[in-house]
Amino acid sequence: MEASITCYSRGTFLPNASSQSSTALASPPSNVRSFTPRSLKSNSFFGESLRTVSKSSLKVSRTKNSSLVTKCEIGDSLEEFLTKATTDKGLIRVMTCMGEAIRTIAFKVRTASCGGTACINTFGDEQLAVDMLADKLLFEALTYSHFCKYACSEEVPELQDMGGPVEGGFSVAFDPLDGSSIVDTNFTVGTIFGVWPGDKLTGVTGRDQVAAAMGIYGPRTTYVIALKDIPGTHEFLLLDEGKWQHVKDTTEIGEGKMFSPGNLRATFDNPAYAKLIDYYVKEKYTLRYTGGMVPDVNQIIVKEKGVFTNVISPTTKAKLRLLFEVAPLGFLVEKAGGYSSDGKQSVLDKVINVLDERTEVAYGSKNEIIRFEETLYGSSRLKAGEPVGAAV
């Protein structure tokens, strides 16, 4: 399946105008309603994901020697938000280009064939046509950004030279379409990526990221980002006219009885995990599990509560990849005020030794991660007096 994107002077990627349907993404019919910042603030259609405040409480100094304070506002476009949030033009360019690729993927997910192919990646995973399409679009976006030195994906797990500089440039790792096996059933799927400074994606940790993000392709398309030097995790909504609009800040993950238990087959020979699942059931937690990591982790950020687990056992080895999935999502959750764990430490403190490194993981509120660590490993680093790890 062929797909391409065109880069304009402002870093805007659009589906190639080879059909009326693809052009419609950028130019909606005149009778389609557009949402302005004012109408967004007064509209309840989008439910909880809209934090209806006129201005965010986030304040970030542009430089150490400047008294200039930037205010990031609900209703800002992606470009406006990034310009206020950072002076790093290279990072702005990378995040903008990836956002435009995600916009194009959202359109393609809705229209592309999702039949299985004979293609197998080097990890042995069967790929779907839409996987490869998303992979291609993201690599193109990083090439066009001109600030990406190296990139690699879960489907192409080898460093690809994108032509960008080492000094002032970035390296990006991504999962182009997490949950691709549930595309054909029309479940929500997503894109995950992490951004590291320079030219290294091994010998680094998740805490070294300067940014991370996920695109969520569901009833709405959203782009959820976090930047190292600005508090919180930030949700952008794709509007009818193809623009991203800032609709929510998350700075705190509170307590709440909602759980998403991945890899339940591990309960067969991991008694500690079985005990944890029994606790959730007996305490009448609400089960919210889709089988897709992106929507399950995103709901913790949107709902500002809950826990996601994916645990291993003697017969079920770790499946989730630290570089492409676990570290970027850990960055988003911890910037949102939550916690992550591999059972003993934050996933952001795990050194990425090889591109294919895998791990078990839990994301959630502080008390949920304490419970996870204590139940599976007997103690928790998050208890009073024990080290928590450096702030993101």
TrEMBL record:
GO terms for molecular function: fructose 1,6-bisphosphate 1-phosphatase activity; metal ion binding; sedoheptulose-bisphosphatase activity. Pfam families: FBPase (PF00316), FBPase_C (PF18913). Residues 69-248 form the Fructose-1-6-bisphosphatase class I N-terminal domain. The keyword Zinc does not apply. It catalyses: D-sedoheptulose 1,7-bisphosphate + H2O = D-sedoheptulose 7-phosphate + phosphate. Gene3D superfamilies: 3.40.190.80, Fructose-1,6-Bisphosphatase, subunit A, domain 1. This is Sedoheptulose-1,7-bisphosphatase, chloroplastic. It comes from Aquilegia coerulea (Rocky mountain columbine).
